[in-house]
Design goal:
Oligomer: single chain
Shape: elongated
Number of helices: 8
Order of helices and strands: HEEEEEEHEEEEEEEEEHEEHEEHHHH
Radius of gyration: 46 Å
Distance between the termini: 61 Å
Strand content: 15-25%
Strand order of the largest sheet: 1-15-3-11-12
Length: 471
Amino acid sequence: MPTLTSGGIGSGIDVAGLVNSLINAERAPTEGRLAVKEAGLQARLSGFGLIKGALDKLQSAVTTLGASDLLSTNKASSGDDKLFTASADGTAVAGAYSVEITTLAAAQKLASGAFAASTTVVGTGSLTLALAGKTATLTIDDSNKSLAGIRDAINAARTEDGTPLGITATLVTSTGGVEPAGTYLVLTSSTTGASNTITVTQAGGDGGLAALQYETGGLANGLTEKQAAADSVVKVDGFTYTSASNTVSGVLAGVTLNLKATTTAPVTLTVTSDVSGVQPKLQAVVDAYNALVDVLKQQGGYNSAVKSGGPLLGDSVLRNVSGQLRLALTGRAEIETGAPALARDIGIGIDASGKLKLDAATLKTQLAQDRTAVEGVLGGDTGLIKRLSNVLEGYLGSTGVLKARTDSIGRQLVDITDQRGALSLRLEALEKRYLAQFNALDGLLSKIQATGSFLSQQLANLPGAFSGDKR
């Protein structure tokens, strides 16, 4: 607020100091009241923020616990990971299975005859390569007619839709042995499977590209098959399954086999239920709930030692959230008679302090005996997860209780700011009025003092007037 000053020139009165004292005296009660109210509201807002943070963590833990595959997860293990590995999803059926791998899937590999060097000219014209229903036609001219140039052209080949053809070309140099010395062009399919064979045809040009043509069973092939395209063949419990890949997912429902080598004897595949993730996720819910209990006590409890309560002492929100969560934890799931239906039946209990405890031994026993029963307690429309989620959404949702409370506090804080603004305007006007009044008084007193001095002088000059040097 701008301050007007005046020195009390005429009378010597400290007008500015007097007005400032009066304004401060006027401001102090209202400002003090607003400051106390603001501090209380900020403390409440902070308290609700801490509660919201604790509820968010609990909601996150409950959501993770409610993952759809938590209690339907299976795991698969191989009797020899060097021969194959395995994985299983929730549809797999637990059991032991005999696996035999007769053949591994392979990608076709073709090789040219020996050329003197990578710079050797092969020829010109066009090469059309085909693999798995996709084709690409390459133009071979003076710019790329060498062995290395053709290799690069094949590696850069794209189909009509712009995707790579899937044939890799490399140059391999031999110093001689069973095969003649020289540099060879080797083509390898990126796709395994007996039906995924490479075809190379040539046309036009000088005819030199005939050295690179290949068709399955062709009589004029320039390339030689070094490795045949092959399917994998695997037997599970004596039933044969053929696949174009070494990742086999169709032979046993819910199970994927990753084949690595052929077997000489049957290898056991074991599928079991995997509930190892249940306990840590349940413990996370327990820990998050207990952390919330601590926050609620800090913000809404009373400390008898220091004789002070939390900023939210007596607030109904704290009582309600605590009570509703406790009801959700102790509620009964609607499942078949005789099966576990309460959280305590699977090892989740509440101690005297209101905190949760997880009995790992009880949970482990229930999971081993009947994981479907555990799923009934936790899942479904009447299970623990749903009950907790409903309560938490009522407080954390966009129209939840906490948002309504914090919005209300926010409006009150804005109102305090508005009141401070109004107070400043009122005091500014009052200061101007006080200054005008005291400056007028100062002027009047100055005139009175001047008149008094004049009268004193006139009286002193009158005949017979008292003088200090006369007796």
